[in-house]
């Protein structure tokens, strides 16, 4: 018969790897579910542009689903749901499973910080009758991308008396925005001879914040004074209060559907809040897991995971130690039997810049969640490589749940590299693999993801924490 497969076609189907585009294979119901899921994600990413905002948002959602603040002295039973708030900048959610905690826990660990421009401790100055903020960039950025775009100011100011003032300025339509200026091309002859890396230098990332002077001829730096007057009237602060502030300038963009087919989302902070949201929604949905689930939303990943809110500290270990202790176990006994999905993004194939990726071993948009066995640089330095056994377990979980997934490396060998929180969780004697969403323009002020990949990442996390 004409439609009968040849022996070679049958053998090819049995033996060879076949990548599948979700748009070609999934039915309309899957596509509709992905689109609907991403509407909630867009709301989340617009509301959570710094880690403190993400923690506040997620705790509110968790409380609505029955989570209570963790008490180290309490004994928790199957089905109990708790959260641990680490200094307002990192969060752990846990749902107690039906299996003994001695069998280990299932961890999903994402991060909620993203590259940005942090204000320096003494940021406000005046030059040429213009008031500006000095910044210190946070994370790995291409500095030139952060000039000539609208910026919003987010964060907190803590006064000497302990009063904490929340700042979110530049997001509402009635708010002013801010910007880093750039040279006009007519006068950029010298600038254009710089390397791209130094097209805009770190000390040139100065944010314009005001122009009108305070009307008093006896005052020096009258524009700076007027800006400080406005801040004092709005927030009740003085210039000294910047010393005890955490303020960041972030893109004042809203998340938008991207493409004529609305198949993608363009937004600031997909890395890694797209994995934070997908793992959050999976954790909220699975209320009766077999294994105890521990969902981590970490800070400081973009700067090496250091500090007491990053996963290179001990708060995750201590949390699991407390859980174990209520059952007469040590944290070491539980951790050594635990597994983890390090929920972080990977680079997607970009046809405009295809030379940096090895096409047989990179992730593609619209091919599903990407499983990354190792990251690192050069000869796999600075990474945790998942074992073959754990890779097989993850394959089975995803296939059984009919999740569209793919594998991918972070670029060609010796092209560059990067890392995730995986190695810090692995240091606790936990089996770990990176699982997340492929991204275009990673670390840019406006990153791109596929809606289908976002949804499949949610399905992957849900399948993992449900697996027996």
UniProtKB/TrEMBL annotation:
Metal-binding is among the record's keywords: yes
One of the record's GO molecular function terms: aminopeptidase activity
Keywords linked to the UniProt accession: Aminopeptidase, Hydrolase, Metal-binding, Metalloprotease, Protease, Zinc
Gene3D superfamilies, per the entry: Aminopeptidase i, Domain 2 (2.30.250.10), Zn peptidases (3.40.630.10)
Cellular compartments per GO CC: cytoplasm
Coiled coil regions, renumbered to chain: none
An example Gene Ontology biological process: proteolysis
Pfam family, one: Peptidase_M18
Needed cofactors: Zn(2+)
InterPro entries attached to this UniProt entry: Peptidase_M18, Peptidase_M18_dom2
EC code: 3.4.11.-
Family: Belongs to the peptidase M18 family.
Protein name as annotated: M18 family aminopeptidase
Source organism: Youxingia wuxianensis
């Amino acid at each position: 018969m004409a439609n009968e497969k040849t022996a070679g076609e049958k053998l090819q189907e049995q033996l060879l790897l076949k990548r599948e585009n979700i748009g070609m294979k999934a039915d309309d119901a899957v596509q509709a579910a992905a689109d609907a899921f991403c509407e909630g994600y867009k709301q989340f990413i617009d509301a959570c542009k710094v880690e403190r905002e993400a923690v506040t948002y997620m705790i509110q959602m968790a409380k609505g689903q029955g989570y209570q603040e963790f008490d180290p002295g309490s004994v928790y039973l199957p089905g109990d749901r708790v959260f641990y708030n680490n200094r307002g900048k990192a969060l752990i959610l846990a749902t107690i499973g039906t299996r003994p905690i001695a069998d280990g826990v299932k961890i999903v660990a994402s991060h909620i910080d993203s590259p940005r421009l942090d204000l320096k401790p003494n940021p406000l100055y005046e030059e040429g009758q213009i008031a500006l903020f000095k910044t210190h960039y946070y994370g790995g950025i291409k500095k030139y991308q952060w000039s000539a775009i609208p910026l919003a100011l987010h964060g907190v100011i803590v006064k000497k008396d302990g009063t904490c003032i929340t700042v979110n300025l530049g997001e509402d339509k009635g708010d002013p925005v801010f910007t880093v200026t750039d040279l006009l091309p007519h006068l950029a002859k010298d600038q254009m001879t710089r390397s791209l890396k130094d097209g805009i230098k770190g000390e040139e990332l100065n944010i314009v914040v005001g122009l009108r002077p305070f009307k008093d001829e006896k005052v020096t730096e009258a524009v700076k004074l007027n800006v400080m007057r406005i801040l004092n009237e709005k927030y009740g602060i003085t210039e000294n209060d910047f010393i005890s502030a955490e303020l960041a300038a972030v893109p004042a963009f809203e998340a938008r559907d991207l493409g004529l087919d609305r198949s993608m989302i363009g937004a600031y902070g997909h890395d890694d809040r797209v994995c934070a949201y997908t793992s959050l929604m999976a954790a909220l949905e699975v209320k009766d897991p077999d294994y105890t689930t521990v969902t981590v939303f970490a800070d400081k990943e973009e700067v090496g995971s250091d500090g007491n809110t990053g996963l290179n500290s001990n708060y995750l270990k201590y949390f699991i130690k407390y859980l174990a202790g209520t059952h007469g176990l040590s944290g070491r006994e539980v951790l050594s039997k635990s597994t983890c999905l390090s929920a972080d993004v990977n680079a997607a194939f970009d046809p405009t810049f295809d030379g940096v990726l090895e096409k047989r071993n990179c992730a593609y948009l619209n091919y599903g969640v990407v499983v990354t066995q190792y990251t690192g640089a050069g000869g796999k330095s600075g990474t945790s490589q998942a074992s073959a056994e754990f890779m097989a377990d993850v394959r089975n979980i995803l296939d059984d749940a009919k999740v569209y997934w793919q594998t991918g490396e972070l670029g060609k060998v010796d092209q560059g590299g990067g890392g995730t929180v995986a190695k810090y969780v692995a240091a606790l004697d936990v089996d770990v693999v990176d699982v997340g969403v492929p991204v275009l323009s990673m670390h840019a002020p406006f990153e791109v993801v596929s809606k289908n990949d976002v949804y499949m990442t949610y399905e992957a996390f849900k399948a993992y924490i449900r697996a027996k």
